[in-house]
């Protein structure tokens, strides 16, 4: 069985990879035997700000609340897009039997 571990940040991924034997450095992850370890970089994706849906929400007005979009949009900042795409590719891969969330739970 092969598994994917996603850590909170690169330093945690390196620590985990030492313990589980993922020593081979790849672009955006570490690999070894039956495991791959990658990481997040803070918030990789964030919900779009209210003004993304409508310019009038740039200034808050009590009358506009609650703001409930029909479809919630997730946005990825430009500086994190490359790593986001690496994680998306790993998560969509059929190579893994399961994924371990090793991110901060709090």
UniProtKB/TrEMBL annotation:
Pfam families: Toprim. CDD domains: TOPRIM_TopoIA_TopoIII. InterPro entries: Topo_IA_core_domain, TOPRIM_dom, TOPRIM_TopoIII. Residues 4-105 form the Toprim domain. This is Toprim domain-containing protein. It comes from Faecalibacterium langellae. The lineage of its organism: Bacteria, Bacillati, Bacillota, Clostridia, Eubacteriales.
């Amino acid at each position: 069985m092969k598994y994917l571990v996603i850590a909170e940040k690169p330093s945690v991924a390196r620590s985990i990879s030492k313990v589980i034997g993922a020593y081979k450095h790849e672009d955006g992850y570490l690999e070894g035997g039956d495991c791959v370890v990658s990481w997040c970089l803070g918030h990789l994706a964030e919900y779009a700000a209210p003004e993304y849906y409508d310019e009038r929400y740039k200034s808050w007005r009590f009358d506009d609340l609650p703001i409930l979009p029909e479809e919630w949009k997730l946005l990825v900042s430009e500086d994190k897009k490359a790593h986001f795409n690496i994680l998306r590719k790993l998560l969509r891969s059929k190579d893994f039997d399961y994924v371990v969330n090793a991110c901060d739970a709090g």
